[in-house]
Amino acid sequence: MRLSRVSLLAFISQALPVAGLGLPIVVYLPPFYADEMGLGLAAVGWIFMITRFFDVAIDPVFGLLADRYGTRFGRRKPWIALALPILMLSVWMIFAPAGTVGGTYLLFWLLAMYVGWTFATISILAWSAELATDYDARTRVQGAYQAALMVGLITVLIIPAAYELMGAPALRDKMRGVGWFIVVLLPITFIAALAWVPETKVSERAEVHWRDMVGALVGSRPLRRLLAADLLVGLSSGVSGSLIVFIARDAFALGDRSGVLMLAYFVAGCLAIPFWVWLSKRAEKHTALIWAQLYSLVLLPVFLVAPPGNFWAALAMIALFGLPYASHRFLMKAMMADITDDDQVRTGRMQAGVYFGLLAMTEKIGLALAVGITYPLLEWIGFRTGTRNDEAALHGLVLLFVLLPAVLHVLAALVLWRFPLGRAAQRDLRRRIEGDSLSAREAGGEGGAHREAMGG
User: Fold this and answer.
1) In terms of CB atoms within 10 Å, which end of the chain has fewer, N or C?
2) In this structure, are strands 450-453 and 202-205 parallel, antiparallel, or unpaired?
3) CA 369/CA 137 separation, integer angstroms
4) pLDDT tens-digit profile of 223-242?
5) Of 311, 260, 316, 294, residue with least CA distance to 412
6) Residues 6+ apart with CB under 8 A from 270
């Protein structure tokens, strides 16, 4: 499908409020509730891990249901419309809590927000796989969506940085500002996509037994490799994200200037997206991802010799560290779209929902484990929030920030080595799918063995 420029912009605009949700959950909300709201590191770590695992559990289930049961309006758009009010309410309750709240309050509203987030994000990702079918075109669409995500991330970072520059460094003020950003943009962007972006007709078999679908999932070697790599990279990214505020404030001794440093991190990541798109076109997607892991591995040890109190040195290091940030976030989605072609050849159905549900699941497991592992480890090494830490605790913080992600980057690169579904194999799959679709139309269209479906 060829989208008009207006339709493409409307589609990727949904990334702006989605980005506003993703970053604070890892970077700002845990320290906000642990420190300013007084819930403590261990309690917040457990709450965020529990709700993440709930989110993980519903992703593939929702994807499967969305693939199998559509409506006359399509099988992606109705879920996005339903997600809108759920997200608006839950975001406001989490980002702008009134007065003192407890762990039950945080647990309930996080669960509600994750339900809305799953409805929206899985539907958007499955929709994106159906909008583009060429190997490199998928990279460009995912790259454009990721660029919009990065613009949203940068905007979300500008808000805390602006509060810091105005002399209001309290996380409560920053989170309220981010909440306003998300709540205002959600209806504007989601309604624009629902109105201006069409759903794609999919040619597929009328019925497939559930055993065949499960067998296709279990037997897919590319799927197993991609999910393992995504889990490793997601865990590495989650560890870095959950510690970066403490690294900037305590290890770098820069006080409440973490917002400015994070802004540089994501600006660098956004500017690097065209490079990763170019590299994946010159080589292949998995090769570009391997280079991204190796780059991070080489750069991480620099943090061990970072001079405390030097803002400009910290800014340069954080910016360089951010260059590969976006690479796995859009390249793995483009690779998953290719894997749905392999599944469609084997099962006769387009099941992008369940496949992207699995991809979201592994990334979220990584992020959940990151907060659930690193915060208790911080307490174990003697690091404390709201107080001055000794040299041993600060050194342990930096070691945790460097060593754990380094090991994970090495493992991810090994898993991606010789990935079995590249450009030539994907294009062969598309020829087979399009050939089957043409044969089905010639054999009698909807009355034949296949069908043209908007809703599934």
Assistant:
1) N
2) antiparallel
3) 33
4) 999 999 999 998 888 888 77
5) 294
6) 147, 150, 151, 153, 154, 326
CB 227 within 8 A of CB 357: no
| Cβ-based neighbours of 200, under 8 Å, separated by 6 or more | 1, 130, 131
| Dist. CA 70–CA 196, nearest whole Å | 19
Residue spans of alpha helices (H) in 381-446: 391-416, 423-443
Q: Residue 5 has which token pair?
A: 């420029």
- The kind and range of the H/E element at 7 are helix 5-13
List all residues 6 or more positions away from 215 whose beta carbon is below 8 Å from its beta carbon. Answer: none
Tell me how far CA of residue 158 lies from CA of 145, 191, 249, 385, in angstroms.
Answer: 20, 25, 18, 24
Size of the chain in residues:
456
pTM comes to 0.80
Q: How far apart are CA 410 and CA 293, in angstroms?
A: 7
Q: What is the pLDDT of residue 114?
A: 92
* Phi, psi (rounded to 5 degrees) for 452: -95, 115
Torsion of CA 38, 44, 48, 54, to 10 degrees: -100
Of 180, 289, 298, 300, which is closest to residue 244 (Cα–Cα)?
A: 300
**pLDDT value at residue 358:** 87
Q: What is the pLDDT of residues 330-351, one digit of tens each?
A: 999 999 999 988 888 887 777 8
Task: Quote the CA–CA distance of 422 and 283 in Å, as a whole number.
Answer: 10
Q: Are 358 and 373 in contact (CB under 8 A)?
A: no
**First and final C-alpha spacing in the chain:** 18
What does the DSSP 8-state code read for residue 326?
Answer: T
Between 450 and 101, whose confidence is greater? Answer: 101
Task: State the Cα–Cα distance between residues 216 and 202, nearest whole angstrom.
Answer: 19
Tokens 């280079």: give the residue: 291
In 3-state terms the chain splits into helix, strand, coil percentages (rounded to 5) of 80, 0, 20
| Beta-bridge partner residues of 205 | 450
**Which among 438, 384, 439, 356 has a CA at the least distance from the CA of 130?**
356
For the record, the structure tokens of 163 come out as 């509060």
- Specify the amino acid at residue 75: R
C-alpha radius of gyration, the chain, whole number: 22
- Contact indicator for 51, 432 with CB cutoff of 8 Å: no
The total of other beta-carbon atoms located within 10 Å of residue 431's CB is 10
Distance CA 238, CA 242 (A): 6
Q: Which two tokens stand for residue 337?
A: 């779209």
User: Tell me, what DSSP letter sits at residue 307?
Assistant: P
